[in-house]
């Protein structure tokens, strides 16, 4: 009689990596980078350490891939919003709303992205790790530039007032990213509730820079 395949054997390699990343993101979110071990990720996934090491040589490599996935998900959420209908302010609002929603939809991954910034600034890293972190932080800068460009366009037509667009955008994005500390997925009532919360968050932010007639 043919042997029944285990879950890991039945899945293709890409699906296995997705499972590892999801499990690792939750572990890093709950315990932080330094306190999380490969053992923790393996236990959460219900597999052996060897299964994890088949795909990742170290915890750091796994963390970097979770960070990279978190940024990919942010770009995937925001890029369609850059084509929103309306003037520059309407597009900026659509982008911020998409970002806010992505922070909730991918809470664990975006928490890891925030941890990556802290490690980049304060963590002890090897030269190779520093180079990888520099690449990841560069992707954050490109993400921020999307919003700066749109904010400049909105200011150019008098829809927002901001003396320093760079600071204004950092404050906008920082306010949304702070949701990793207070948003609780377990108390979530579903997609409609996340839409309403994202809209309220963005309205509060935009009201601070909207031009008054």
From TrEMBL:
Q: Which residues span the membrane?
A: 74-96
InterPro entries, sorted: Homeodomain-like_sf, HTH-type_TetR-like_transc_reg, HTH_TetR, KstR2_TetR_C, Tet_transcr_reg_TetR-rel_C_sf
**Organism from which the protein derives:** Tistrella arctica
What is this protein's record name?
A: TetR/AcrR family transcriptional regulator
PANTHER family documented for this protein: HTH-TYPE TRANSCRIPTIONAL REGULATOR BETI, HTH-TYPE TRANSCRIPTIONAL REGULATOR RUTR
Question: Which superkingdom does the taxonomy of this entry point to?
Answer: Bacteria
What SUPFAM superfamilies does this protein's entry cite? Homeodomain-like, Tetracyclin repressor-like, C-terminal domain
Q: Any idea where the HTH tetR-type domain is?
A: 14-74
Indicate the residues that the entry says bind DNA: 37-56
Keyword list (alphabetical) reads: DNA-binding, Membrane, Transcription, Transcription regulation, Transmembrane, Transmembrane helix
- List, alphabetically, the Pfam families matched: TetR_C_24, TetR_N
